[in-house]
Amino acid sequence: CFGFVTSFERRVVTPAPPNSQGFLIFHSFGGGTGSGFTSLLMERISVDYGKKSKLQYAIYPAPQVSTSVVEPYNSVLTTHTTLEHSDCAFMADNEAIYDICRRNLDIERPTYTNLNRLISQIVSSITASLRFDGALNVDLTEFQTNLVPFPRVHFPLVTYAPIVSAEKAYHEQLSVSEITNACFEPANQMVKCDPRHGKYMACCMLYRGDVVPKDVNSAIATIKTKRTIQFVDWCPTGFKVGINYQPPTVVPGGDLAKVQRAVCMLSNTTAISEAWGRLDHKFDLMYAKGAFVHWYVLWETPFPLWSFFT
C-alpha cells in the first residue's frame, strides 16, 4: 500500500491510492528484526495512517522448534505493540506447519520453501476477495468487524483444507462438507493448540473454487450440531462466510495438489490461550534468572523489564 524509505535524516513516503484498504504486514514474533522493527513500524503507521486497517501475518514461536534463544523476550515485547497497533493478527507456527508437511504431503524433511508455499495458500485465500469475483466477497475491514469481539482479542487461529499431495489428488477430491469438517480438526491448524479445550467466539470461512452457498449452509448447519464444537453463549451465530469462484492455484511441480475447492478458516477461539501460556512460561523461566536481560535493559536502571508492558 505504501512505500517507505527510512533513514536517520529523512523519510520518503509514497502515498497510497485513495481506495487502498490498509496494510498487510508479514513478520516473525521471535526474531529481533521481525519483532523490534515491526513494532516501531506499526507504531508509526498508527500515527500517520490511523484509519487504515492493519493486518498481520505472523510466524509465532513453536512449542519445540526454536530459532533464537531470546525468542520468548522478543515475542512478549512485540505482542505488547501488537495489542495496541494491530487490527487483526493471523498466526502460524513452524512446528505445526512442519507436521502438516510430513503428515499430509509426505515430505520427510520440509524446507522453508515447503513451509512458505503452504503459508502462501492461506494468504492467497484471505486476499482472494480483493482480487477476484465471488458470490460473497470479504474485504479487509470485514475481518476485524466479524472476527474481533474486543479490540485486544484479535488473534484468530488459522486452518486450511484440503492439504493434499499431488500423488493423492486424483483420489481425494473432497466435498464442501468434508473440507469444512477438516477445518475443525486440530491436525489442520497452523498453531499448536487444541480448539476442543476452548470455545469459539467467531469463525470466518473463506471458500474458493467450485462452491455454492447451498452446500456451505448445509455444512455449517452440520457443524453446529456437533457437541465437540462449542461457541460462547453471547455469540450464538458465529459464522461469517466468503465464497470466491477462483480455484486455488499452486506452483507447477510443487508439493500441493491443485484441487477444485478449498477453504481457509479464521477462528477466534479461547483455545489460543494455550499458545500464549507456553510463551509466558518460557519467558518467566528466563526472566526469573535475569538471563539475557542485559541485551534489552540495564540492570542499573530503576525500571525493570516489566515496566515496558504498562
Automatic annotation (TrEMBL):
CDD domains: alpha_tubulin. Residues 136-281 form the Tubulin/FtsZ 2-layer sandwich domain. The keyword Nucleus does not apply. Residues 2-134 form the Tubulin/FtsZ GTPase domain. The keyword Ligase does not apply. One of its GO terms (biological process) is microtubule-based process. It catalyses: GTP + H2O = GDP + phosphate + H(+). GO terms for molecular function: GTP binding; hydrolase activity; structural constituent of cytoskeleton. Keywords: GTP-binding, Hydrolase, Microtubule, Nucleotide-binding. Pfam families: Tubulin, Tubulin_C. Belongs to the tubulin family. Tubulin is the major constituent of microtubules, a cylinder consisting of laterally associated linear protofilaments composed of alpha- and beta-tubulin heterodimers. Microtubules grow by the addition of GTP-tubulin dimers to the microtubule end, where a stabilizing cap forms. Below the cap, tubulin dimers are in GDP-bound state, owing to GTPase activity of alpha-tubulin. This is Tubulin alpha chain. It comes from Cacopsylla melanoneura.
